[in-house]
Amino acid sequence: MSLLIVSLDVTALNVALPDLGRELNADVSGLQWTVDVYTVVLASFLMLSGSMADRLGRRRVFRVGLVVFTAGSVACALAPGLGWLIVFRAAQAVGGSMLNPVAMSIITNTFTDRRELARAIGAWGGVVGISMAIGPIVGGALVHSFGWRAIFWLNLPIGLAALLLTTLYVPESRAPRPRRLDPVGQLLVITLLGSLTFGIIEGGRSGWGSPLLLTGVGVAALALVGLLVYEPRREEPLLELDFFRSVPFSGAFVIAVAAFAALAGFLFLNTLYLQDTRGLSPLEAGLYLLPMAATTLVFSPLSGQLLGLIGPRGPLVVAGVAITFSGALLSGTDTTTSVAILFTGYVIFGVGFGLVNAPITHTAVTGMPKAQAGVAAGVASTGRQVGSALGVAVVGTVLAAGSRTAGWWVISGCGALVLILGALTTGARARRTAERIDTGGQGPKG
Known about the structure:
The chain has 18 helices and no strands. It is globular and about 60 Å long. Helix content is 80%, strand content 0%.
């Protein structure tokens, strides 16, 4: 249910963007910030939330996250203007950071058999398909009937139900040895993600060589260098750079960035294309996205089953091919594009995104120590949110410059990256590399 409200909030809100923009007098940049402030704040605090859950108790932090997210949703529904909405979206994201990675660490510590864990992750990832399937329809119907604010009111009953069920059924768990806080590392992560996103959104409007963009990218680069220098010196860092010595983990992180950049760009482009270019209502736009959402719904749990049978490489390769082909096929869309071509592209994209989510999570968390499951899941989830933020920032900036076609090619390029990394980082050699790292260079034990 936590994944449902977070994912539903994204998919349903995208359908509401044109209506929101008209009521609040927001341009493309304002719409980008409405989406991206959430993903940037979420990504910034995911690793902190994961480590806090390992330290203080996963159920406890999870329940706090539900309360903060639900309260933030109510505040968003009552926002009097665009600035307030952006502020409340940031507050909502703080609560959201305590949900998905903590839920994944609960699952990881509950299911000990690898096949059971793969199926559990597949079921968990299948909720993305459910939210994708119902998000555009529910969002379109709510916006059509009640306006964009109803998108946020929807989170209230789901959040309260999830809080009750968590209290009744979820067991408490925590890491055997608590981790210390890392405020310097946290500040560097916020600076890195915030300045990079700001530079792309605000600077991109003035051209890719604008001072704002170059300054944002420069500050982000300095923050990245700071992380690489400072974090290895800490005994218990916020960002576990040792995780990235594992080839599968590093590959899963970059694949998450690319796949979710493709998804965020896909939703952002299509929402504005269907309503502003083709003149559809929010409900009609939601119905148009149903083929992609329904396909994601089917292939998300199938991906979990394939994980248990053949491992992550096969699903990731097929996912990369599908996303690449879908972006290329839709690159020529205009007002005269047939519905058959649109739906073909949407279905193919749904296949790709449906297959990619479970392998990402499985690859990222199964090679890590259980005591650090929250941190590992937090890093993997950070990759998803970084990708979402960059996808909206880059595609939205390209769209604002007047080139929708280039936005589709950005999505296609993300798919190609998923294909290449899925083939290269999840094979036998990569697994043996991870085993050597996990055992201190001695190879697998036993």
